[in-house]
């Protein structure tokens, strides 16, 4: 494993600008940790923390005690820093298993087993080569018809899946095989309820139960901090938000969380934002259940007509956009920006927020990600223009990518949010639409494993397609008179599309033919679509950029309409064909892996109470500094 590239999420200057009440609010809402998606993850975390505490961060002392060369310890520190920054990367264990240091440290419970096993695990549908603790028990996903039936039942009971896991068990009673599916719901409260009893007349009986109390200990700690934070909330909206989140964590009922999200959306431009809960489904191989994340940022500082077509929301207020500084971002992926909430009905009825993380974006201005793929004669200019193009792309991705599209739907009362008698024409076929979302159906529920990658692809396409619009570029200070001109931004963006499309192959596993990351699959699909267009090559030609835009537009239109009309079948056929890695691309992958960029890690600050004062402590952006920052969180 290459030495990680570590960036400090510097926040001291912004923190000093907060009032003492705001600092106390920030301190209490940042205390958060949760079990992640591997059964070994908590043991690995405890192992790293125990080693740090055993030598008080003086790693040379550990090397002498273990009688190993310091270079072996440095390899371990690189691994530990990336693990902590990403919360979990099970495949990283493969790269340090042969380390001499490990042979001296084999006494740590489950960690010993993890290191000695011949691991080849990716996160995915449980199999011989992948695992996911969203799905527990042997063969939980073997019978997808049964899994779909479970999903349909909980959907009818208005039990949302984001904060659940699924466990299957089988018991034999004579010749009858009884299968039980347990829906494990994250909550502090503990109980169980049978949602469906087995049919004794059937040879294969299935019981479905709801069991509350998953992650209860972690949620108790979180709610304690939420209770303290409420004392320092700036307004009633923030108090209602934290109260609703706490209620949801206590009961497991996501209806309380959803109501809290409605309050959050209406709390316009607060000094301190609060984003946490079971939010993004990127790590669920089925794209339905969400990873817990916590983000604590604070702020640094329209539409002329109603010309919306049938595939756009009726509600599109002036975008709630904020550029903020992150104190804490507890998640496996630290995104440069977010667009939340994910619940489409809330987005349609109440709106959404767009948040860009300024101190996260700074890393992009300093990184040389994929620069070796750019022709040597253009590298200097590429690096100079990259951040501007990337920043505009991210903003458009969030506001006009994730922020647009209307899901055509029938509700439980038989009402439609479009004219059923005169349905809109499908621009792909020229005929009236013939598919839509049924009662209770959601985007993730219908598109399952494709939902996250297709939506990220659609948002990336929207940002890339619109980046040459002069009026938009003027908003970012890009004019014919600026140092970086509009033509430079567009050219650089298409270079980035090529680089990101190739770098995406790092996250493709040829043995399983699976993609490990939603954004990577999207970037490869975009590159493939452009390469399929006439007159385009991988070398960007300034005179052919309009053909590149046309290619992006055709792909964007397809994904947009598939999403709006719940046309899963057409979407899967189109997208899976586009993201299939053919033999030539496998050759590209070998070249990409030979010059793989170093892993990216972020070093977060901590806050500590000294009497009534909150003290902020930042750490050096090194592997040692990053590990120390986690150790001092006392999790």
TrEMBL record:
GO terms for molecular function: aminopeptidase activity; dipeptidyl-peptidase activity; metal ion binding; metalloexopeptidase activity. The active site is at residue 398. Binds 1 zinc ion per subunit. It comes from the Eukaryota. Its main location: cytoplasm. The keyword Protease applies. Pfam families: Peptidase_M49 (PF03571). GO terms for biological process: proteolysis. One of its GO terms (cellular component) is cytoplasm. InterPro entries: Dipeptidyl-peptase3, Peptidase_M49. This is Dipeptidyl peptidase 3. It comes from Aspergillus fumigatus (strain ATCC MYA-4609 / CBS 101355 / FGSC A1100 / Af293).
């Amino acid at each position: 494993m290459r030495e990680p590239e570590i960036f400090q999420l510097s926040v001291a200057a912004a923190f000093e600008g907060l009032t003492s009440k705001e600092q106390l609010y920030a301190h209490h809402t940042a205390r958060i940790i949760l079990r992640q998606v591997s059964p070994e993850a908590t043991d690995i975390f405890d192992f790293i923390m125990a080693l740090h505490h055993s030598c008080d961060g003086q790693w040379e002392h550990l090397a002498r005690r273990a009688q190993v060369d310091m270079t072996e310890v440095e390899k371990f520190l690189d691994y530990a820093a990336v693990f902590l920054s990403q919360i979990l990367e099970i495949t990283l264990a493969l790269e340090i298993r042969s380390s001499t240091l490990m042979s001296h440290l084999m006494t740590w419970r489950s960690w010993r087993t993890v290191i000695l096993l011949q691991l080849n695990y990716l996160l995915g549908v449980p199999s011989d080569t992948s695992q996911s603790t969203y799905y527990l028990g042997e063969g939980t996903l073997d019978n997808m018809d049964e899994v779909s039936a479970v999903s349909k039942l909980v959907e009818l009971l208005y039990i949302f899946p984001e904060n659940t896991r699924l466990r299957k068990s089988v018991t034999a009673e004579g010749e009858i095989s009884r299968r039980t599916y347990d829906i494990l719901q994250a909550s502090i409260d503990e109980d169980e309820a049978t949602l469906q009893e087995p049919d004794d007349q059937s040879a294969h009986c299935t019981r479905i139960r709801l069991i509350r109390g998953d992650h209860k200990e972690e949620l108790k700690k979180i709610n304690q901090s939420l209770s303290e934070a409420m004392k320092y909330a700036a307004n009633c909206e923030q108090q209602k938000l934290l109260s609703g989140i706490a209620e949801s964590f206590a009961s497991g009922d996501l209806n309380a969380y959803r109501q809290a999200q409605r309050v959050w959306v209406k709390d316009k431009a607060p000094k301190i934002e609060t984003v946490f809960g079971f939010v993004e489904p990127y790590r669920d191989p089925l794209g339905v259940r969400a990873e817990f994340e916590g983000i604590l940022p604070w702020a640094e500082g329209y539409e002329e007509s109603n010309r919306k077509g049938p595939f756009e929301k009726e509600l599109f207020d002036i975008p709630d956009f904020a550029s903020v500084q992150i104190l804490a971002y507890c998640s496996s992926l630290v995104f440069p920006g977010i667009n939340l909430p994910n619940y489409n009905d809330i987005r349609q009825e109440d709106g959404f927020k767009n948040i860009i993380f300024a101190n996260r974006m700074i890393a992009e201005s300093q990184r040389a990600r994929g620069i070796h793929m750019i022709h040597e004669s253009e590298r200097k200019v590429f690096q100079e223009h990259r951040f501007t193009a990337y920043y505009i792309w991210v903003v458009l991705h969030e506001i006009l990518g994730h922020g647009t599209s209307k899901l055509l739907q029938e509700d439980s009362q038989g009402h439609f949010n479009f004219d059923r008698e005169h349905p809109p024409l499908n621009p792909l076929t020229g005929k009236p639409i013939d598919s839509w979302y049924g009662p209770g159906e959601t985007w993730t529920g219908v598109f399952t494993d494709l939902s996250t990658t297709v939506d990220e692809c659609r948002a990336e396409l929207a940002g890339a397609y619109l980046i040459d619009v002069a009026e938009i570029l003027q908003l970012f200070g890009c004019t014919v008179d600026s140092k970086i001109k509009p033509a430079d931004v567009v050219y650089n963006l298409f270079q980035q599309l090529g680089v990101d499309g190739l770098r995406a192959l790092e996250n493709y596993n040829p043995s399983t033919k699976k993609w490990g990351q939603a954004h990577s699959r999207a970037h490869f699909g975009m590159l493939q679509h452009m390469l399929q267009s006439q007159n385009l090559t991988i070398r960007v030609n300034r005179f052919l950029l309009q053909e590149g835009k046309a290619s992006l537009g055709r792909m964007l239109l397809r994904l947009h309409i598939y999403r709006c009309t719940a046309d899963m079948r057409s979407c899967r056929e189109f997208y899976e064909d586009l993201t299939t890695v053919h033999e030539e691309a496998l050759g590209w992958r070998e070249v990409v892996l030979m010059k793989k960029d170093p892993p990216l890690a972020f070093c977060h600050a901590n806050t500590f109470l000294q009497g009534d004062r909150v003290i902020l402590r930042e750490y050096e952006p090194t592997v040692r500094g990053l590990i120390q920052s986690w150790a001092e969180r006392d999790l």
